[in-house]
Amino acid sequence: MESKRQQKVASLLQQELAAVFQRDLPHLFPGLPPGISLVRVSPDLGVARVYLSLLLAKDAQAQQVLVEDNVKVIRQALAKRVGKQLRIVPDLQFFIDDSAAYAAHMDKVFGDLHIPPAPAEGESDTDTDGQKPQRPKLFADEDE
Question: Which Gene Ontology BP terms does the record give (predicted)?
């Protein structure tokens, strides 16, 4: 559970990092700059884990390498923005946030499922030949 202070610092870092990527350092990122989906701060406020949303990037891995190669420059630009609010600018660790891609994948999986409609009320649950459908056995020792 994060403290209120951690949450406030994480929110501040998320806003300011987005501004750094879009306004201060757009020359580092060809095309669209990465989006910040989440920031988590350690209890001592010394380390910030930044989750990047790279959905619109053509090559997410190359974009992450580009960000990691410029961590020092990004941290310096961030220090200029939050220097009056934070005593120490946390070390930045960048990770790819793939939750949106995972949600799209799960949506596709659920969309491809074939679920037969439930029988209407009043209809019996018998098969077309008049017999009840067989219930699958879940366990080997299950009796009918």
Answer: maturation of SSU-rRNA
Maximum distance among all Cα pairs of the chain, rounded to whole angstroms: 79
- What residue has token string 């994480």? 10
Residue 144 domain-assigned?
no
- In 3D space, the residue among 80, 119, 96 whose CA is nearest the CA of residue 36 turns out to be 96
Domain that holds residue 23: 4-98
Distances (CA, A) of 8 to 16, 54, 58: 12, 24, 32
Whole-angstrom distance, CA of residue 20 vs CA of residue 124: 65
* Residue 40 included in any domain: yes
CATH number of residue 44's parent domain: 3.30.300.20
pLDDT digits (tens, 9 = 90+) for 20-30: 999 998 888 87
In a domain, residue 124? The reply is no
Question: In angstroms, how far is the first alpha carbon of the chain from the final one?
Answer: 48
- Asked whether the CA dihedral 83, 85, 91, 96 is positive or negative, the reply is negative
> Structurally, how many domains does the chain consist of?
1
| pLDDT of the residue at 49 | 95
Cα(103)–Cα(107) distance, integer angstroms: 6
